[in-house]
Amino acid sequence: MAKHSYPRHIKFESVFNFRDLGGYRTRGGQTVAWRRLFRSGELHYMTDRDITRLKEEIRLRSVIDLRNFRELEQFGIGPLNKVDVKHYNIPLITLSDSDRDRERVLFQDVSHMGHEYLYRIANAEFGRRVVEALEIIADSDNHPLVFHCTAGKDRTGIFTAIILGILGVTDEDVIEDYTLSDLYMKEGISRWSNDPITAEALKNVPEYRFKASPESMALFLSTLKHEHGSVKGYAEAHGVDESLIYRLEKALLA
Questions:
Q1: pTM for the whole structure
Q2: Which domains does the chain have, with CATH numbers?
Q3: Whole-angstrom Cα distance, residue 190 to residue 182?
Q4: What is the mean pLDDT of the chain?
Q5: Taking a C-beta distance cutoff of 8 angstroms, is the pair 153, 112 a contact?
Q6: Nearest to residue 208, comparing CAs of 150, 153, 142?
C-alpha cells in the first residue's frame, strides 16, 4: 500500500466513518488521488464546526446519498443544506416491508454480510444505480465528492469495492479498506440506540450485521471473480463501458 500523505480517517464532531479513499495503489502502478473521493456514514447530524470543515478543509462539491427514500424522508440531509454542494440521492437498495420479512428468513443462518452483498448486487436495478453514481464520480467537476449511506459500511462498502476494483486496486487493499468500518460501529450502535426513530428496530438486528469482517468482503470479491472474472467484469456486465472506465481513471488516478 502507498504511504499515506494525508490522514485516511477524518474526524468530525458528529459524523463518523468519514474516510479518504486516496493513496491505494493500483495493479498498473498508479495511485488513487487524495482529497478527491470520500466515503462516510450518515451526515445529517453535522454540527456547525463539521460544516465549516467540509467547506474550508474538504472543500466539498458533491454528495451522493445512497440511502433509500424512506430514510431520506425520515432524517433528511440535515445542515448539509448550509453547504453549497450538489446533492444526489441514488438509493442502491429499496425494500418494502414484505421484502424485509422475506430477507430475514433468507439470511437467518448466515454468519457475515457477504451473502447479503451478493444477493443485493444480483438485482439489475442495483447495477443500474451503480452506473448512475459512477457517472457522477467520473466528472471531475463534482470533486471533491463524498458518498454515504447510514453506517457507511454496507451500501457504501459495496460501492467502494466496485469503484476500487474498477480502478485496479488489489483485493487485499479493498478488504482492508472495508474492515476499517469496524472501528466505528460501536459509535453507530450507541447513536441509533438513543434515537427514538431507530432504537426499536435496532433490537431485531442480528449481531453480524454490525460487523465489517474480512470474510464478508473476501466472499464478495471471490464470487465476483468467479462469476465475472473481476469486479470490472461485473461492472461491465451491468452497463459500465470503456468510456466510463477511462473517465473514472482520469478523474481519480494520479
A1: 0.94
A2: 19-252 (3.90.190.10)
A3: 14
A4: 93
A5: no
A6: 153
- Residue with cell string 422475506: 102
CA dist., res. 152 & res. 97, Å (int): 22
CA distance linking residue 149 with residue 67, whole number of Å: 5
Q: Record the cell numbers describing residue 56, joined without a space.
A: 474550508
| Structure confidence at residue 106 (pLDDT) | 76
Could you tell me the sign of the dihedral formed by the alpha carbons of 144, 147, 151, 154, in that order?
negative
pLDDT, average across residues 12-17:
96
Q: What is the pLDDT of residues 80-117, one digit of tens each?
A: 888 899 999 999 987 666 666 677 777 777 889 999 99
Q: What DSSP assignment string belongs to the chain?
A: -PPPSS-SB---SS--S-EE-TTPBBTTS-BBPTTSEEEES--TT--HHHHHHIIIII---EEEE---HHHHHHH--GGGGGS--EEEE--S----HHHHHHHHHHTTT-SSTHHHHHHHHTSHHHHHHHHHHHHHHT-GGG-SEEEE-SSSSSHHHHHHHHHHHHHTB-HHHHHHHHHGGGGGHHHHHHHHHT-TTTHHHHTTS-GGGG---HHHHHHHHHHHHHHHSSHHHHHHHTT--HHHHHHHHHHHB-
Q: Name the amino acid, one letter, at 235.
A: A
The answer to whether 90 and 65 have CB atoms below 8 angstroms apart is yes
pLDDT value at residue 220: 97
Say yes or no to pLDDT of 23 above 90.
Answer: yes
Report how far residue 73's alpha carbon sits from residue 67's, in angstroms, rounded to the nearest whole number. 10
